[in-house]
Specification:
three-stranded antiparallel sheet, elongated
């Protein structure tokens, strides 16, 4: 019994998540704006963290696609810099942008993707340790 209680974690942490989850269920069923605001407030910390992780994951998915496109269309895909602008992707023939990485585009994207992957893992571990 004590082993099960120990694995559940501290009551303060476990109950926060449980209450936040129940508040969301209550807000959905009742449609009460006050309860909805309470539910959002209780879950806002987790929301920001998971939104941030989702954005990092989307970038992680985009990088291999860009690498494949760079191999297929080497002149139009890359890291482009123009007048006060910077973007990573496909240039549709606009002459005021120049590709700055050239052949280094693929290794740099692989390196950045590896760094993003390990940062996502570290952030998830930190979140799990907090809980």
């Amino acid at each position: 019994m004590l082993n099960v209680i120990d694995r559940l974690g501290l009551p303060e942490e476990t109950l926060k998540e449980y209450v936040a989850s129940k508040k969301i269920t209550q807000a959905i069923k009742s449609l009460n704006p006050k309860i909805l605001l309470q539910a959002l407030f209780l879950n806002i910390r987790n929301g920001f963290i998971y939104i941030f992780l989702s954005l990092l994951f989307i970038l992680l998915i985009c990088f291999p696609i860009l690498i494949i496109l760079k191999i297929i269309y080497p002149k139009t895909v890359g890291c482009f810099v123009g007048k006060g602008t910077f973007y990573l992707g496909i240039n549709n023939g606009q002459s005021n942008y120049t590709e700055v990485l050239g052949n280094g585009f693929i290794p740099i994207l692989i390196l950045v993707a590896g760094i993003l992957y390990f940062s996502i893992i570290v952030i998830l571990k930190l979140i799990k340790q907090k809980k």
